[in-house]
TrEMBL record:
Pathway: Porphyrin-containing compound metabolism. PANTHER family: HEME A SYNTHASE. Its main location: membrane. It is a multi-pass membrane protein. InterPro entries: COX15/CtaA_fam, COX15/CtaA_HemeA_synthase. One of its GO terms (cellular component) is membrane. One of its GO terms (molecular function) is metal ion binding. This is Heme A synthase. Keywords: Cell membrane, Disulfide bond, Heme biosynthesis, Iron, Membrane, Metal-binding, Oxidoreductase, Transmembrane, Transmembrane helix.
Length: 360
């Protein structure tokens, strides 16, 4: 009746078998789950990146248009703030760069309002850079089919960085008038690139063909050259005038009164040539008409402001407006040049235009 010990041992072995199975299962789970936890984070990172890329526009949409216009406005505004720095004598309000003083990144109590104006312009550079970066990211997904927009966005972003460095060199050289002039011209170029982005984003990608007669295209490029000459002499005139940016800053040494006249001559020629472009576009119904008229309007205001400021002793406010208008003139001229070509098939063949014009 005591029972068979071998039978009891066998029964005990059967009773503990489930626990052995559970233990082996736990060990198996631990061995296979360990690698999955190690590889989970890279998978999560890839998922996050993919979601970000999917969020980016796959075509030119409202987000790209909005940021493109913000970029253009910011590039124009920094010309205004840079002009304010120069016209208020605040060019060396922060005597060092990239910090404001040798010991402080921002203006200190010992500095005056000139430092606040100069530091505000430096902060505006940061705003322009952030907007340029956002635009570059937004066009990343369409970089293959819209290589033109991607390239223009890259130029703007890289140009902002280069402009910051040139601004630092301007401070280091004590506002050398030639470097200050180059700083302004390069800012103006970025305004033109931003305008080109806006013009191209409203047109489809693909091959383009000339949409105007050959003589009209040549006249437009000649007008652009006259505009460039006008801007260069305007920069030289300002560099020899009273608004140096600081009382201790040097001047070019040129005769400012003579340069005022030399600057005016190509300005008048520019207005005359633009009137011819607008009249021809009206007569031939060319795609450049709208922007040629806009260019005429900006130039008329620019000439008026230039005459008033020259005859009233170059008041700082008018000089600043004159600087901003020059940037807007260059931007409008850029768009006119881009309108010389249209997407293939969207316009009449250039070879047929002279015949059609003579038939009328």
């Amino acid at each position: 009746m005591a029972g068979n010990p071998h039978r009891a041992l066998s029964r005990a072995s059967r009773d503990t078998q489930p626990f052995k199975s559970i233990g082996s299962h736990c060990r198996w789970v631990s061995t296979v789950s360990t690698p999955s936890t190690v590889t989970a984070r890279p998978d999560q990172d890839r998922t996050t990146v993919n979601r970000l890329i999917e969020w980016l526009p796959d075509r030119v949409d409202g987000k790209i248009r909005l940021v493109a216009w913000l970029s253009f406005v910011a590039e124009t505004m920094i010309i205004a703030t840079g002009g304010a720095v120069r016209l208020t004598g605040s060019g060396l309000g922060c005597p060092t760069w990239p910090t404001c003083t040798a010991d402080s990144l921002v203006p200190t109590e010992e500095l005056d309002y000139h430092s606040i104006i100069e530091f505000g312009n430096r902060m505006m550079t940061g705003v322009v850079g952030i907007i340029a970066l956002v635009l570059f990211v937004l066009v990343w997904r369409i970089r293959a089919e819209r290589r033109d927009l991607f390239t223009l966005a890259f130029i703007v972003g890289a140009g902002v960085v280069a402009q910051a460095i040139v601004g630092g060199i301007t401070v280091w050289t004590g506002l050398n008038p030639f470097i200050v002039g180059f700083h302004y011209v390069s800012s103006l170029v970025l305004v033109c690139v931003s305008a080109a982005f806006i013009a191209r984003m409203h047109q489809p990608p693909g091959p383009r063909e000339r949409a105007v007669p050959g003589w009209y295209a040549g006249l437009t490029h000649a007008t652009s050259a006259v505009l460039a000459i006008t801007i260069v002499f305007g920069v030289l005139t300002t560099g020899s005038g009273p608004h140096s940016g600081d009382t201790d800053a040097g001047r070019t040494g040129f005769d400012s009164e003579l340069l005022e006249h030399v600057h005016a001559w190509p300005g008048y020629a520019l207005l005359a040539l633009t009137l011819v472009l607008a009249a021809a576009a009206w007569q031939l119904r060319l795609p450049t008409l709208r922007w040629a008229l806009a260019l005429v309007a900006v130039e008329l205001v620019q000439v008026t402001v230039g005459l008033i400021q020259a005859r009233s002793g170059l008041p700082p406010l008018l000089v600043g407006i004159h600087m901003v208008l020059a940037a807007l003139t260059a931007a409008a001229m850029t768009v006119v040049v881009l309108q010389l070509k249209q997407p293939t098939g969207a316009s009449q063949s250039p070879a047929e235009m002279p015949t059609a014009a003579s038939a009328r």
